[in-house]
Specification:
heterotrimer; A alpha/beta (about 425); B alpha/beta (about 325); C alpha/beta (about 325); A: about 425 residues; alpha/beta; OB fold (Dihydrolipoamide Acetyltransferase, E2P); Rossmann fold; 6-stranded parallel beta sheet; 14 helices; C: 10 helices; EC 1.2.4.- (chain B); Alpha-ketoacid dehydrogenase subunit beta (chain B); Transketo_C/PFOR_II (chain B); THDP-binding (chain B)
Chain lengths: ~425, ~325, ~325
């Protein structure tokens, strides 16, 4: 029976870690029609209604009412055929009703790419030993990997070198900087643009194939780094480099958007990091032009209405912005309190409405696979800058897309990142 | 060292502190002529007189409030509340009075009083005389809460509590009064805020309070027969909590069972469990297990009461499940 | 008459009552301007109770009062500025801004202290008296409490023990006729609550609570008894709460004719009249002007005093070894 996920990726609340399931409009086994309200979730303190994207039957509910679900999680599924009665009881109910029955399942096979269930100690030991948890069989309740399983796996590894640790390890894609992840594969560093924060990649990360481990950092003056602004692109590169070193990251694939694209190039030029590949989305630093009104408006907006109008400039089609995006973004700015830092950085990075840094040389000097992606409808940095790409770089010009492909076309963005990363073998 | 019963150890501590400091006085129901329902104050009225050892009317609310201000004005009251089940009557004095003044009066007053009480089940005393309401008092910032499980700690901690400059709720257990143990002679105090390692082990840590320490020790014997080496940590100071001792033990065993005779929901075991998560998450090889009273009134009839109370066998089962 | 205050004592009582009245009126005005924080419980019209009762105490004696305790703070000898600064949450307040106007304490002056749990001041004073008896200090504890507090269970418990143990405590019942909005006759079957004193084997006297001299006479007699070790006593002072429960009170439940009648017997007028034959007008006028000036000065200083800074430091840790 084919089933299709009900997910909240497209439901807004970009700046939230999790959403709260408020109410299911159907119960498992009920028929649903495309466009029917199926579940209401709370995002950024606003209720968001998720509609069925197809006709079918509600098959599973993975997060029951009142539960929190991580953004990107599959809340439930719609089946093409009517599910058998009793088959679709909520998972949480089963677990609560009989924890012992589940606990007694001693051997437990995880689906590839699923999150490994491991004790905190096992996770810590595996990370320290560079052991990929997805290759370890758990012997604890519900297949939980315990210390003894790590000990056994490490013993087996020393018996058969290379047998367990593989480069194709399926790593949980982590938004948070994860030093443990960085040790086992070359991570992909995602750098956001001016006025955003690392959560801007949230829709893209779950779409990346297993095996691509990501690290998303906040730029100085942004997100968690709101209190520490930087005055120029060199300081941004320096700060990022320091933080990567502190995490033990020595080489990485770079992905940057807008100012983050410029930061990626500056980081490559800085030279302390071994760069494996570079994927740039509407990067800065390739020409003097920039929409100064947008930058200023973004930094100054204090009302949802104002921010909404500037955000509309950012995309090719304003409908591409998830509902409540401006509200969530504004809340985020208010929470981090970085409006002042943004305004100050706008002044020094873009004096007189001009990009204050030139990275065309840095781009030209790259010796690794390089890809440039630009929306043809970009009204923040003109797509014409793509013409300054060196001959070795792949250039993609996207129809109908504005300045933020990662929001407007997350699947394509994920695909292009993956292709660049894969292209270096 | 002298072999003593728990109640005798308390009695000795009270006597020594009253001899040493004339500002120490005792009051409570039935503590004078009768010597206390559990005999902890036996003979003290004869020795120190009716002014310093007072039988009181049944007035827990006012008695506790009076202990607060008496302590602020130069004396060191030791108040006995006969059953922990009566502590709800003391709560205004603890929550709205004792816990606030040090802070809101900007350090102008000290409140060196001790509220002794006893709780816990197993004696057929029914739903209103069997509860351990530890978490209800441990919840209140500014109140110290201790619950010694051995005669030696009973004496040493009561002496320390009387000398402390802050309010201390001193929790005893009706089934501990007759337990015997070695007690150091002379003026020996046991500092508040430090856990005791009753037994070292390497496979699992059992954190227990009051009489549950006794049950945990029995559980450790049973577990030894299962081939499991259990470490027993006596959380004799419920607050302030000896977090270092907890973390050190978990760093060794990576498995934890917390045992408290109070209710489960919002209970002391829940606090312990969260504290372990805060401070030792990366040391855990399994979720923290809680052994508590179920969230129900305590019944009278023996098989009913016994079925409810945390016991050595329940602790053993929880430990084995944690080690799976 | 026995225990009648001397003229100088009466003048000092009158002066402190003036300070309290100015304090209350100024607070009312600042509240209207939105410059106060939280509810303020004014004691206008009840100044004679708090000031004259505490005038009967010595420095080493201690008093516990209510959430409406401004007259007690000033009566027991606290200076205006730390009281005003505390009401405005300043670092220089009597409690560094941590307590607010309902919970003011000054251990050195024996104000221990304001208490906003109605009834809680009664065992508080009783506990202090217990301590005094055990230590044999010769001091007396006093509780100023209202007719609302008289209905609590803890009032009975504490007074029973005070009577039983002959504790040196004086219970001053500030009968202002209201427990928040509910009049006394809806809260108690008896008008004179002090008849209950008989149940605790303690003497009681009912006085006009707006007559500072009457309050002083009755209270000082009880204080002397208590100090001699003869046990507690009660004085029921009949007065009236003219300014409502607090600044958050919408009013409408007090009869205008009652308010007018009690205002005509304002304790300040009663005290001034009692003094006018004994002290010349110029001296009274000088005292009045000085009280106004002292209040203005205290407000001016307190309102420009710094706000406290929040710091999570060792002092905030209730389990710090430093305590």
């Amino acid at each position: 029976m084919a089933t299709h996920p009900i997910s909240i990726d497209s439901a807004g609340g970009e700046y939230m870690e999790a959403v709260l399931v408020v109410a299911w409009a159907a119960k498992p086994g009920d028929p649903v029609k495309a466009g029917d309200l199926i579940v209401t979730v709370e995002t950024a303190k606003a209720a968001t209604e998720i509609e069925a994207d197809r006709d079918g039957w509600l098959a599973d509910i993975f997060f029951t009412e009142g539960q929190e679900a991580p953004v990107g999680a599959v809340l439930g599924t719609i089946a093409d055929e009517k599910p058998a009665v009793g088959q679709a009881a909520p998972v949480a109910t089963i677990a609560a009703a009989d924890p012992l029955a589940a606990a007694n399942a001693s051997s437990f096979v995880r689906q590839s790419g699923a999150r490994a269930i491991a004790s905190p100690l096992a996770r810590r030991l595996a990370a320290a030993a560079g052991l990929d948890l997805s290759t370890v069989a758990g012997s604890g309740p519900r297949g939980r990997i315990k210390k003894r399983d790590i000990d056994a796996a490490l013993a087996a590894r020393s018996d058969a070198p290379g047998g367990i640790l593989t480069a194709q390890a399926a790593c949980p894609a982590s938004l948070a900087a994860a030093p443990a992840t960085a040790r086992q594969t070359v991570p992909t560093l995602l750098i956001h643009g001016f006025g955003a924060d690392r959560s801007v990649w949230r829709q893209v990360v779950p779409l990346l194939e297993p095996g691509i481990a990501t690290i998303s950092l906040d730029l100085p003056g942004h997100g968690a780094e709101a209190a520490r602004p930087a005055k120029d692109i060199e300081e941004i590169a320096f700060t990022l480099s320091d933080r990567l070193e502190a995490m033990g990251v020595q080489d990485a694939h770079l992905v940057g958007h807008s100012l983050g694209g410029a930061a990626a190039l500056a980081l490559a030029r800085f030279g302390r990091l071994t760069v494996r590949s570079v994927t740039l989305f509407a990067p800065g630093g390739l020409g003097p032009e920039i929409n100064a009104g947008f930058i200023g408006g973004l930094a100054r907006a204090t009302s949802v209405q104002a921010l909404e109008r500037w955000l509309a400039v950012m995309v090719g089609d304003p409908a591409a912005l998830p509902a409540g995006y401006a509200q969530a973004a504004l809340r985020q700015i208010d929470r981090t309190g970085n409006r002042g830092a943004l305004a100050a950085m706008a002044e020094t990075l873009f004096p007189d409405g001009t990009q204050g840094f030139d990275l065309t040389t840095a781009l030209a000097e790259l010796g690794v696979p390089t890809r440039l992606v630009w929306g043809k409808l970009d009204r923040v940095i003109p797509a014409a800058h793509a013409a300054r790409a060196p001959a070795f770089a792949a250039v993609h010009l996207l129809d109908g897309i504005g300045h933020v492909p990662q929001i407007e076309a997350p699947a394509l963005t994920a695909r292009l990142i993956a292709e660049t990363v894969r292209s270096c073998g | 060292m002298a072999m003593m019963r728990y109640a005798e150890a308390l009695n000795a501590a009270l006597r020594e502190e009253m001899q040493a400091d004339p500002s120490v006085f005792l009051f409570g129901e039935d503590i004078g002529r009768y010597g206390g329902v559990f005999k902890a104050t036996k003979g003290l009225m004869e020795e120190f007189g009716e002014k310093r050892v007072r039988d009181t009317p049944i007035s827990e609310q006012a008695l506790t409030a009076m202990a607060v201000t008496a302590a602020m004005t130069g004396t060191r009251p030791v108040l006995e509340i006969m059953y922990a089940d009566f502590m709800p009557l003391t709560l205004d004095a603890l929550v709205n009075q004792a816990s606030i003044y040090n802070y809101v009066w900007n350090g102008q007053v000290k409140m060196p009083f001790v509220l002794r009480t006893q709780g816990g089940g197993g004696a057929g005393a029914g739903a209103q005389h069997s509860k351990a309401l530890d978490s209800m008092v441990a919840h209140i910032p500014g109140i110290k809460v201790v619950a010694p499980s051995t005669p030696a700690d009973a004496k040493g901690m009561l002496k320390a509590a009387i000398r402390d400059s802050q309010p201390v709720v001193f929790l005893e257990h009706k089934l501990l009064y007759n337990t015997r143990g070695e007690v150091p002679e002379g003026d020996v105090t046991v500092p508040l805020g430090k856990a005791g390692i009753l037994r070292e082990g390497s496979d699992i840590s059992i954190f227990a309070t009051s009489k549950m320490v006794v049950e945990a020790s029995k559980a450790a014997d049973l577990l030894a027969m299962d081939g499991v080496s259990a470490e027993i940590v006596d959380l004799r100071s419920l607050r302030p909590l000896d977090i270092d001792a907890i973390v050190a033990s978990i760093a060794k065993t990576h498995h934890a069972v917390v045992v408290n005779e109070g209710w489960r929901f919002c209970g002391y075991a829940a606090e312990l469990s969260a504290t372990i998560m805060d401070h030792a998450f990366d040391e855990l090889d399994a979720p923290v297990a809680r052994v508590t009273l179920p969230d129900m009134p305590i019944p009278y009839s023996e098989p009913l009461e016994t079925a409810m109370l945390p016991s050595a066998e329940k602790i053993r089962a929880a430990a084995l499940k944690t080690l799976k | 008459m026995k225990n009648t205050p001397s003229v100088e004592q009466q003048l000092e009582i009158y002066r402190r009552m003036l300070l309290v009245r100015h304090l209350e009126e100024r607070l009312g005005a600042l509240h209207k301007e939105g410059r106060t924080r939280g509810p303020i419980h004014r004691c206008d019209g009840q100044e004679a109770v708090g000031v004259a009762a505490t005038a009967a105490l010595e420095t080493g004696d201690k008093v516990a009062t209510t959430h409406r305790g401004h007259a007690v703070y000033i009566g027991k000898g606290m200076a205006m500025r730390p009281v005003v600064a505390e009401i405005f949450g300043r670092a220089t307040g009597a409690c560094g801004g941590r307590a607010g106007h309902m919970l003011v304490a000054d251990a050195e002056k024996g104000v221990i202290g304001g208490n906003a749990i109605v009834g809680a001041g009664i065992p508080a004073a009783t506990g202090m008296a217990l301590s005094m008896q055990i230590l044999g200090t010769g001091n007396v504890a006093m509780c100023i409490f209202g007719d609302g507090a008289a209905q609590t269970g803890i009032c009975h418990e504490a007074m029973n023990m005070a009577g039983l143990w002959k504790l040196p405590v004086v219970f001053v019942l500030e009968h202002n006729q209201f427990g928040l909005t509910v009049p006394s006759d809806v809260q108690s079957p008896v008008a004179d609550l002090s008849i209950r004193a008989a149940g605790y084997a303690m003497p009681a006297e009912i006085v006009d609570g707006n007559d500072a001299v009457a309050v002083y006479r009755a209270v000082s007699a009880m204080v002397e008894r208590a100090r001699r070790g003869e046990g507690p006593g009660m004085v029921e002072c009949k007065t009236y709460r003219v300014e409502g429960f607090s600044t958050s009170d919408m009013g409408g439940y007090q009869k205008p004719e009652d308010i007018a009648a009690w205002k005509a017997r304002d304790p300040l007028l009663v005290s001034r009249k009692a003094l006018s034959g004994k002290v010349d007008e110029a001296r009274l006028a000088a005292i009045e002007a000085a009280a106004k000036a002292e209040t203005d000065e205290a407000f001016e200083a307190a309102l420009s005093d710094p706000m406290p800074e929040f710091a999570v430091d060792e002092a905030c840790n209730p389990y710090s070894e430093a305590h």
